[in-house]
Write the structure tokens for this entry.
Amino acid sequence: VIKLGSTRITPFRHHAFVPDLAFSPEGRRIVTACADKFARVFDISIGTELVRIPHDGVVRAVNFSGDGGFVATASEYTAPHDESFIGLGRDVVRVFEVKTGNEIARRIVVGITWGLSFAEGDHVLYAATDSRLEKMLFRTEDLIADACRLTGRSLTKEEWQEFIGPALRFR
């Protein structure tokens, strides 16, 4: 335990380098990125690990959504060898529900991701890579609305089944 002034700080245990961290909006939790291929959410007051999220590669960047309900992570993309990926750095950006640790969205981005930020009322996630700024929709309703906007029409029942799946009733 470290004491700074009158505040005691409990160390949060990791097994490798920690390149990034972020505090939750209410200030009671912290999420860390770690080279051991895990993102972790801790309760700050007692130092307890609440959620451990496994990744396939080194976790480089993390952030909480503005409402604290989601965590975004960026980690090395470790796909099977494919000639189209040779020489191109790739990361995978993922969004998780904090309470459950369940993944709700993922996107492969070109370049190494150095920062993540939620915006537009937590409906959009931006990923800052070494070559561009990527905009990512991750909520199902927003993805459906965007698909309809891009096509200029509603999705057909077949498209709904293919892209949305049976978890949501066709509308």
Observations:
- The mean pLDDT is 84.
- The radius of gyration is 18 Å.
